[in-house]
Amino acid sequence: MSPKTCKWMFTAVIRPILSYCCSIWIRAIDTDYNARKLKRVQALALRMMSGAMPSTPFLALNHLTDTPDTILFLRGEAAKGAARLQAYGSLTLETIAHRKGTIKNHTTINKQFMEDLNIPPRATRDLTAPTMMLGRHFTVTTPGTNNTEYRTALQHTIDNITSETITCYTD
């Protein structure tokens, strides 16, 4: 398998599996044991793609393959997920008083995580739901042999354009 294919498999298949719902379990990587396990998965993939020896340090592998550290990547993904949940108004605080031995809800953990990262709670975000528009209508106008007729038709088209129309001109 080529190095390019190995990198694609890691970034497009393995890393999304590892980062699934990481905004819920991100605090688990605060322990060295869990962080080391995740780093080993990335190091194995990077060694396969680069052909490096097993003694090659993690940081060198990340630099050689231009791949971000897995812990930093997961923290970033968790922050993005938590910010999206917060922007949609899906994060709420628990009402149980904190005392020793109390298990916190993941929403409270996410809010604390975002406070630790200094992410503003009410930043403006693009919350537009993506829509698929299969019926797009467009017109391509190219000059023919009669340049005067083309210019007249083009001027007529420009004069009748609605305000919602996107117009692109090229030379």
Describe this structure in words.
The chain is mainly alpha-helical. It is 52% helix and 0% strand. It has helices at residues 3-18, 22-25, 32-50, 58-65, 70-87, 106-116, 147-159. Helix 1 (3-18) packs antiparallel against helix 3 (32-50), helix 3 packs across helix 4 (58-65) and helix 5 packs across helix 6. The protein is flat, with a radius of gyration of 26 Å. It starts with a helix and ends in a 12-residue tail after the last helix. The mean pLDDT is 79.
Which terms would index this structure?
7 helices, 171 residues, 0% strand
Number of helical elements: 7
Report how far the terminal alpha carbons are from each other.
44 Å
The number of strands is: 0
Q: pLDDT below 50 for ≥5 consecutive residues: which ranges?
A: none
Q: What Rg is obtained from the alpha carbons, in whole angstroms?
A: 26 Å
Average pLDDT number: 79
Largest sheet: none
Beta-strand percentage?
Answer: under 5%
The gross shape turns out to be flat
Strand pairing plus helix content: what structural class? mainly alpha
N-to-C order of helices and strands: HHHHHHH
Query: Level of helix content?
Result: 40-55%
Summarize, please.
It contains 7 helices and no strands. The chain is mainly alpha-helical and 171 residues long. It is flat.
Spell out the blueprint of helices and strands.
Elements lengths: L2 H16 L3 H4 L6 H19 L7 H8 L4 H18 L18 H11 L30 H13 L12
Helix pairs in contact: 1-3, 3-4, 5-6
